[in-house]
Amino acid sequence: MAVPKRKVSPSRRNMRRSHHALEANSYIEDKDTGELRRPHHVDLKTGMYRGRQILSPKED
């Protein structure tokens, strides 16, 4: 079984984990309604996705 020769330093450990941080969600403005929505997701207000009606529109 492979065993490390030396302990990994905290600096090296933290450098390895530098890309593990969470990022803020990205939102885009919908072309038709002007509402903010996630990219590649259905617009829940209109029910449209890529120009097609996927869901029935949400009632307020």
Can you describe what's shown?
With 60 residues, the protein is an alpha+beta fold. It has a domain at 27-60. Helices cover 12% and strands 13% of the residues. The protein has one helix spanning 10-16, and strands at 28-29, 36-37, 48-49, 52-53. It has a two-stranded antiparallel ribbon with strand order 1-2. The chain has a two-stranded antiparallel ribbon with strand order 3-4. A hairpin with a 6-residue loop joins β1 and β2. The longest helix is centred in the first third of the chain and has 7 residues, at 10-16.
Order of helices and strands: HEEEE
Spatial strand arrangement across the major sheet: 1-2
Oligomer: single chain
Q: Which parts are unreliable, with pLDDT below 50 for 5 consecutive residues or more?
A: none
- Label the structural class: alpha+beta
Radius of gyration: 22 Å
Biggest sheet record: 2 strands, antiparallel
Shape: rod-shaped
**Helicity level:** 10-25%
How many individual β-strands? 4
Strand content: 5-15%
Tally of separate helices: 1
Taking the alpha carbons of the first and last residues, their distance comes to 62 Å
Q: Whole-number average pLDDT?
A: 89
